[in-house]
Amino acid sequence: MGRYRAPQQPGSKYITAAGAARLRAELDELWRRERPLVTAAVAAAAAQGDRSENAEYTYGKRRLREIDRRVRFLRSRLEGMVVVDQPPSDRRRVFFGARITLETELGQRLHYRLVGPDELDMASDYISMDAPLGRSLLGRRLDEEVALELATGTQRYTIVEIDYSDIG
């Protein structure tokens, strides 16, 4: 088997206003604060002489590459993003940004917010619209049942609440 790996399909291009602000803040922090500090440290390490055995220089250059890679990713990702800051016209259906309460067959209630893949680390109750559960919820109505095939069997959920109060 060769080294070739098929390119991953990029995630959805939707993001909430809070998620976009967080990504812009990270980009600003990396570009305006952290990168100049690392660049100055690399320049100071380079001035010390032999760069081949200079760990500060080597690790500084590596950190610069990491910063530059993340900056490129953030810029390209933010460039094509669609910021969703208005609730949909039909608030009885599940769309991007909705806070959803699901009830399992055992009566347990689960709370999620449907977001894009770039926002998943913001909160533990966020679920990506690209995830299997997120995809199965999109477009569903209140009191509708959703079935999700898991390795352990089929899990059924009933949508008991849809809320868009924190959008717009």
Polypeptide structure, described:
There is one protein chain. With 168 residues, this protein is of the alpha/beta class. The chain contains three helices and seven strands; from the N terminus they run βααββββαββ. It has two domains: 70 residues, Transcription elongation factor, GreA/GreB, N-terminal domain (Helix Hairpins, Orthogonal Bundle), CATH 1.10.287.180; 76 residues, Chitinase A, domain 3 (Roll), CATH 3.10.50.30. A five-stranded mixed β-sheet has the order 5-4-3-7-6. Strands 1-2 form a two-stranded parallel sheet. The model has no long low-confidence stretch (mean pLDDT 89).
Keywords for this entry:
single chain, 168 residues, alpha/beta, Helix Hairpins, Chitinase A, domain 3, 2 domains, 3 helices
Query: In the CATH hierarchy, what is the architecture of the largest domain at level 2?
Result: Roll
Beta strand %: 15-25%
- Largest sheet geometry: 5 strands, mixed
The helix fraction, in percent, is 25-40%
Q: Nearest-angstrom radius of gyration?
A: 22 Å
CATH class of the largest domain: Alpha Beta
Count of β-strands: 7
| Count of alpha and pi helical runs | 3
CATH topology name of the largest domain? Chitinase A, domain 3
Ends distance = 50 Å
How does the overall form come out from the CA principal axes?
elongated
Task: Indicate the mean pLDDT.
Answer: 89
Order of helices and strands: EHHEEEEHEE
